[in-house]
Specification:
two-stranded antiparallel sheet
């Protein structure tokens, strides 16, 4: 809904900046993605479980970065507030966690309580209650655990926010916290659980509702991913956190929803049993293709409606056949879809510097597609063989759990995508199909 009179600029801005952020359901840009198939809507199913849940619960939500998951968490928050009368806190762990280093239960819980505490202070009048938790945590870290160089006074306004920043931005500080707390996890968890119990009790007293449901939505945990030599360690640490230490991720009287990386899906059965029997809920890409490769007209029409909501005059810039081509090339991934359209708009603008009447032609679109494809390459021969199996079977084709780090690399790099049509299924990124065939052909020739 840009105010600019330049249609190219208006379309570009509608896809970037505010337009690229997680949307509220009330936002003019918001489009219900599964409105016509509520029985297949993972968010509705998740809401129903939470609406019926008693005492406390833990649920896991997964999905690819940029496919609308954070926006859907906001829809879940609204459903819980309006339909269930729940008190809901939504926190973004990207503001409190160092996403590129191994995570342990200690720093994860500290970051989680820091995030929750800040949300409580910002949205309620329970500052004294939260202040008491900071005071107890201060004594625990300095007097009992003797964390070296812990120079933060958590009782000073703004200090807890600094703790969150240090955990997020300072690898050495995070590592010291982990090392010092390994022998004190039980007390750390007890302190966090005590704070949560006091919080829920205070909220229920304030609302004069002894059964008030309190829910914590924990976003962006799925963004934890290592780089380089740390990649395997980071992956293993996340698996350990949500499997071996899962019992400590639930809190009395609180309903928690964590977003988790898609590579945990192969462990779904085990995690479901550990976390109270609830399956991992997966938010899929838009269903632009069927398993046999045919176009899905319903999904493609939905991708068109998403752009129409943002800029009704889009067809004067990107003709309908070319928009459909970009939607198919994105594989239903909204982030890639927006990037492809944005780059087409930039390419068209630069072409008009010398050819004012230029329109978006096939060569421009091809170059934009090639740019995105190059970001996904190169592909090693071993990877190409595995990706070819995934493309053929529409299954993750995981040889063993020992190969989970490689599968995580595929998922993190958006080389493969997750869909939901009855049962979840996988396929490779559409722009990689020919590249995979080329790698395998070269291997056969040699």
């Amino acid at each position: 809904m840009s105010q600019t009179t330049d249609p190219l600029k208006a379309l570009y801005q509608s896809l970037n900046g505010r337009g690229a952020l997680p949307l509220e359901p009330s936002d003019p840009y918001y489009v219900p993605l599964l409105e016509s198939t509520p029985d297949k809507d993972p968010i509705l199913k998740l809401w129903q479980r939470l609406d019926w849940a008693q005492s406390e619960s833990v649920n896991l939500l997964t999905g690819f970065r940029g496919n609308g998951k954070s926006t859907e968490l906001r829809r879940l928050r609204d459903l819980l507030q309006r339909q269930s009368g729940a008190r809901v806190f939504l926190v973004d762990m990207a503001d409190f966690l160092l996403m590129t280093k191994p995570v342990e239960l200690s720093d994860f819980v500290l970051s989680l309580m820091t995030a929750l505490g800040q949300a409580v202070e910002a949205e309620t009048d329970l500052k004294a209650l939260t202040h008491g938790y900071w005071e107890r945590l201060q004594r625990f870290l300095t007097s009992d655990v003797h964390v070296e160089s812990f120079d933060l006074d958590l009782q000073v306004p703004g200090a807890p926010a600094k703790l969150g920043l240090k955990l997020k931005n300072e690898p050495d500080f995070k590592q010291r916290i982990q090392e010092h707390l390994r022998g004190h996890l039980a007390r750390l968890i007890d302190g966090a659980q005590g704070y949560v119990i006091s919080l829920v009790q205070a909220l229920r007293k304030e609302a004069q509702d002894p059964d008030l449901k309190v829910v914590l939505l924990v976003d962006s945990v799925e963004q934890i991913r290592g780089v380089g030599a740390d990649a395997g360690k980071v992956h293993d640490s996340v698996v350990s956190l949500f499997s071996g230490q899962a019992a400590s991720l639930g809190f009395p009287m609180l309903h928690v929803i964590y977003t988790v990386p898609p590579y945990l899906l192969p462990l779904a059965q085990n995690l479901g049993r550990t976390l109270g029997g609830h399956p991992i809920v997966s938010w899929p890409n838009v269903h632009v293709r069927h398993q046999d490769g045919r176009d899905d007209p319903t999904g493609l029409a939905l991708m068109e409606r998403i752009i129409d909501r943002r800029h009704p005059g889009w067809s004067d810039i990107v003709p309908t056949p070319k928009l459909r081509r970009l939607a198919k090339c994105s594989g239903g991934d909204l982030r890639d879809y927006f990037r492809l359209i944005s780059e087409c708009v930039v390419t068209l603008r630069t072409a008009r510097y010398t050819r004012p009447e230029a329109g978006l032609d096939d060569d421009m679109v091809r170059r934009v597609e090639e740019q995105l494809r190059n970001e996904l390459l190169p592909i090693a021969a071993d990877d190409a063989r595995w990706l070819a199996r995934i493309h053929a079977t529409k299954d993750a084709a995981l040889p063993s759990t020992g190969e989970l780090p490689a599968l995580a690399r595929f998922l993190d790099g958006n080389l493969i995508m997750n869909y939901l049509n009855g049962e979840p299924w996988y396929d490779v990124h559409p722009l990689l199909v020919d590249a995979i065939r080329g790698v395998l052909a070269d291997e056969a020739d040699h």
